[in-house]
Structures are given as structure tokens and as C-alpha cells.
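[worker-b] picked up task from shared queue
[worker-b] task type: protein-ligand structure
[worker-b] ligand name resolved to flavin mononucleotide; SMILES cross-checked against name lookup, match
[worker-b] sequence length check passed
[worker-b] input payload:
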Amino acid sequence: MTQTDTQTPLLFTPIRLRGITARNRIMASPMCQYLSDDGAPQEWQLVNFGRFAMGGCGIVFTEETAVEARGRKTYHCAGIYHDSHIPAYRRITDFLRAQGAVPAIQLGHCGRRASQHGPLKDRATLTEADAQDNMKPWQGISPSPLPPTPDGAIPREMTLDDIRDTLAAWREAARRAVDAGYDLCEIHGAHGYLIHQFLSPLSNLRRDAYGGSLEGRMRYALEVAETVRAAWPADRPLFFRVSAIEGAGGVWGIEDTLALTRELKARGVDAIDCSSGGVGGDGPMPGVPRVPGFQAGYSREVRHATGLPTVAVGMISDAHHAEKLLRDGDADVIALARGLMDDPNWPLHAARTLGYAGALGLVQEREAQRLRLLEQHRADYPQGSAVAIPYGPQERVPYSWETGIARRG
Ligand SMILES: Cc1cc2nc3c(=O)[nH]c(=O)nc-3n(C[C@H](O)[C@H](O)[C@H](O)COP(=O)(O)O)c2cc1C
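[worker-b] inference finished, payload out:
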């Protein structure tokens, strides 16, 4: 990719969505921490998400946040199902905003993937034995009474009242997210959770208006979108995360996703976050190989078919790659999850890699000032130049660039 030095890289060009402007197009992707206390985030979340804002991300998502208590995967998942949760999130959003990032929340409901241990225990289903550790199993809800895995717990088939109740929970969660200071909201419609369970014919065997045809299976997703859109301020953007295709053996494909995203656009969704996987079966769909940009093609398809802005995510960690995806019109925003865990200052480093003159503007001025000084030192004493380190008024010892030390004698 060619680019002149004077041109601002697209990655560092602000993006405006409704009334909100992100300083750049780098997004910290939502990441569950499994460290909440009855839904409420702790110190860990403040520091963990805070470091992504300090590193220069334009948009910082916190984690999938359950709209009701039974919609958590584990007892330690985040939730926003009580008004008492609001101050704990407000503390995080205030900090993210103070660092220049747009604070973003992903609202979710796990449906049948409830009542589990976290990933460190392989997401094993809770049993009665776990009740001794204050983790009594509970029954998940889902469009059909099908377990998430062959040996998983069978969820309760949702009644129409359940559907209405969960829609009310989505609405209330969105309202609390406003009060908690979030500027951007995403509906988690991917990864085999409740919305995806309605979408996929593998997990939805209903014969009523919420099942059967594609139109029927999409109904719940679209009602959630309408509900959240109505509760979420008109001047703030709403994203929707899709599994553009399902996992190995799944049947939901890219054409289904295009149909869904066109309908989401009509309901005021502002951007589609393009992920994949979560429901699998015995069908012919192979798993998606994990290579850099493995889901970026889905982002391109959705962007071109709907005209909606999209987010590309999936093993994108090279700044030139991120920039090229934007330049080629494959996405409008680039999201990183593990890349930011690996390097929370990734935006700053990417800015330098792309020759962005405003790189140091991405971090707080008190840090930038010191980093400028560091750059000045490097300019003052170029690699290989003659340097001597004083050991006293009369004694100077040559510095060796090879060993990185000035040794006497
Ligand atoms: C620790 C961790 C937690 C995650 N939690 C969520 C989540 O809460 N919601 C979600 O949609 N995706 C979640 N993901 C998926 C990421 O948002 C992202 O889509 C995925 O990791 C691919 O991006 P990457 O290759 O940059 O890590 C999580 C990923 C990780 C590593």
C-alpha cells in the first residue's frame, strides 16, 4: 500500500456515527472478563478496559453485559439488570471518556448457554455439586428445548410471555446503559447466544411466528433491535454483532446475514460488527481457518450489500493490514481483542508504523511529553555515534553500542 507522509492514515481518521465521533477507527472488541460480582464490574474491569483507552483506541467496548440475571453464562459474567449496577459502570465510562475513547457497551443474553463455569473450566455445565460453592445451577431459556452441546443442559422453551419479558429486559438494560454513561451500544446477535439461537434453524424448531421461515427466525432479532433502538438515544449509534456464518456444521450462511442486516438497517442499526461461529451441527459448513483478517471478507460483503458501516475483526494485528482493509472499503472500523491484550498501546504503535504525525496525541499529554523526550534522546545520539559516559569530573568512559554499556577498565 502506498501512502504519502503528509496524508493521515485512514485508521487515524475520525469516524462520526450519529452524534458521536470516535477519534480513530480502532476499536477494542468486547471481551468477557468473568470477574463481575452479581453482574457488577470491579477494579479489574476499570484497569483492563482503561488501558485500551490509555493506549489510544477510538472506541472501547467493555464486555458482553447480560440484560437479565438468567441471561448470564456464569455467575461471574457482567450484567446490567439492576439500577444499582449503574454507578459501577459510570466509573468506567467516565475514565474511558477522560482518556479520549468512546465508551461502548455490548448488551447480550446467553439463552441456552446459561449456568456454566467460565473458560478456565472449559465452560462445564454447573451441577448440583456447585451449589455448595454458591453456584446453584439454573435453567437457561431458548427458542427450543435443545441443549447447546450434546451433553449440555436442556433449556426451557420460551413462551410468548418469556419473549415479551426478555424484550423488556433489553429495553431496561439499554436505559441503564444510557444512565451509566455509554455513548455506543451493541446488540450481541452472534456466537450462539439467545438472538443467534432464534436465527439458526439448528437451534430454533418453533412453529409459531418466531420460527420456521427466515422471516420468522429473524423476528426476535429485529424486535430486540427495535426495542433497543427506541430506548437508546437518537443521537447515539447502535451496532449489531452478527455471526456472518455459523461454526463448523452450521447452516446459517452469508446470504442469510445479508437479509438480516438489510432489515437491521431499516430499523435504525448504524453498523454491523462482523464475527462468526457459535452454532454448529452436522451440516457441510467447514470451520473458519484462523488467519489474519479471517472475517474481513464478511465485513466487505455486508458493507457493500447494505451500505452500512461495518467492523472487521479477527486476528488483525498488523497496522498496514488494518489500514489496507479500510482503504479497500472492506470495513469502516477495525476491532482487536487479543491483539490489545498483547499490546494495549497497539494504537500508538500502529500510528508510528503508519507514520501518523499525531501519534503522541493518542496518549495523555503527561505521557506524551516524556515520550517526546525519549524520541529527542534517540535523535541526539544516533545509533553508532561516539558517546562517552562520565564517571566523575575528569573521567569519561566510551559507551559501546554493541554491548549497551560503558565499562571502566
Ligand atoms: C477474552 C475474550 C473475551 C471475549 N468476549 C467477548 C464478548 O464478550 N463478546 C463478543 O462478542 N466477543 C467476545 N470475544 C471475541 C472478541 O470480541 C473478538 O471478536 C475475537 O477475539 C476475535 O478478535 P481477535 O482475533 O482480535 O482476538 C472475546 C474474546 C476474548 C479473547
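[worker-b] attaching auto-annotations
[worker-b] The two ends are 51 Å apart (CA to CA).
[worker-b] releasing lock
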